[in-house]
Amino acid sequence: MPLFSLSRTNSRRGMEPLRQKLRKATGEVDRPKQTTPPVILLAKNKAGTLEIKEKYGYVSKDRNAAPVDFDSTFWGASCTKLVTAVAAMQVVEKGLVDLDEDVGRILHEWKDPIVLEGFDDKGKPITRPAKTKMTLRHLLTLQSGMPYGILDETIQKYMRATGQSLKGHTLQDQSCWPLLFDPGEEWRYGYSIDWAGVVVERVTNSACLGDYMAKHIWGPLGMDNTAFRIQHRTDIKDRLVQIYQRNHDGSMSKTNVDYFPGIYDGGGGGLFFQPTDYMKLLESLMMNDGKVLKPETRDMLFEPQLKDSKALDYLRHLPEGLRNSMLCSTPPTTDINWGLGGLLMMEDVKGKRRKGTLSWAGMSNLYWWIDPTSEVCGFFASQILPPGETEVTNLNMEWELAVYDELRKVTS
């Protein structure tokens, strides 16, 4: 099924058609015909009249693999970014840092940033001092000028020209290159929120970001099975779901990615968790219950931060799969902006999320959203690459339609 082809009539049938598709796709009906890894679906509304908690499939394709369960561990990838944004806004609440001050006070690595303007006729990089200082707001809104090198040809060219490698174990090794633009001028997906996590570590004198989050986010919300660097947490690692790669012929194979390479807590993509743990954070922010953020601070997560949403045209020009993932399975023409906590819908999406919805995704095809207008939040958790993989993306699209159909049933 092509993307964005689900009809309005499909959204009126509720969860049952999706349940049938998921049982078949995840191998519950016929194991040899499994086409997708396990899926966990979670949704809840503020009134408490809607709650969906369902699981499908097996922790791997191995013949004797156990069924996936709610205590299974998933790699959260960029779903981590929301947790780091909450931590950063907590330290803003405490007066430890201002959103708009120069973070060079805290991040000496970025005290005097330089910008890559281009290359001369011999291929030598041309750089200059940045015209603006970098702020925490720039980091949280991905306007710092830092890209992911693996996604950016300009940085790849710079690394080749200077004889450097994109590989590295520290955040400094992975991201301390010239910026692509002056902070605040454009938008680029990259390491910004990892550095926001470093801000949290340093202003709170925490040994690592995970220590801070355990005390101030995971603990208060009861997220007991969430951690970075789980090679040190066998209780979490032993329940890890296998991540698969979709091959060109449509089959799946186990990935050979090392998910424990770092020596730091990556605030942009390093968390592992039970999906039910992550849902506790989504529920808290939907309820605006004050457990992790003051109500007025929580509301700031949902405020548009980009003066010109055309900055997000970058997303629309990505390869299709990556674009679908980053647009969170919404039509590419949707009016969007960026908040302090993620992607913001600036208009209703027919049959689905409403204007003001905050959302984002994880590389291994996890998708979350919080809709403050409809007072509902949801989470779709899978473990397959590449991001935006077509079969899983279509399942996620149908999932969101089904949630809003069920929501209409309990609110009509």
From TrEMBL:
Q: What protein name is recorded for this chain?
A: Beta-lactamase-related domain-containing protein
- State the organism of origin: Tetrapyrgos nigripes
> Positions of the region Disordered?
1-33
User: Which parts form a coiled-coil structure per UniProt?
Assistant: none
The Beta-lactamase-related domain is annotated at 55-390
Organism's domain of life? Eukaryota
Mind listing the UniProt keywords for this protein, alphabetically?
Answer: Hydrolase
Q: Name one GO molecular function term.
A: hydrolase activity
Q: Does the keyword Hydrolase apply?
A: yes
Specify whether NAD is a keyword of the entry: no
**Basic and acidic residues composition bias: residue spans:** 13-33
PANTHER family the UniProt entry points to: (LOVD), PUTATIVE (AFU_ORTHOLOGUE AFUA_5G00920)-RELATED, BETA-LACTAMASE-RELATED
- Family to which the UniProt record says this protein belongs: Belongs to the class-A beta-lactamase family.
